[in-house]
Design brief:
The chain has a domain of 65 residues. 16% of the residues lie in helices and 37% in strands. The longest helix is centred in the first third of the chain and has 16 residues. The chain is globular, with a radius of gyration of 14 Å.
Length: 97
């Protein structure tokens, strides 16, 4: 699942943005999935195509924001993080760091 950061930043913006918008066409089915917590409140789905382009969908019961990290070693220090959410006025924010 290793993806170069420069390639990943562009992909994540394109892939996560439709998750926040309504009225988007249905995305193709994702073959792999897992709950990431024991309370089943964080659900990750993913897949890849023939060119190894990764597609992620993160479903989270949240109070308005979510962060998702990628690393080669499975820990927060040195990871690449995606943060997104909805402000109280309904506007959407999205950031990759």
């Amino acid at each position: 699942m290793a993806v170069l950061l420069s390639r990943m930043k562009g992909m994540l913006f394109l892939l996560f943005l439709p998750c926040f918008c309504s009225g988007q066409p249905a995305s193709p089915p994702l073959r792999f999935s897992i709950f990431l917590d024991p309370s089943n409140m964080v659900y990750l789905r993913w897949d890849h195509d023939e060119q190894e382009l990764m597609t992620f969908e993160l479903q989270v019961h949240t109070t308005g924001w979510v962060a998702f990290g990628f690393s080669h070693h499975g820990e927060l220090p040195g990871s690449d993080i995606v943060i997104g959410g909805v402000f109280p006025n309904g506007s959407i924010y999205f950031s990759v760091s």
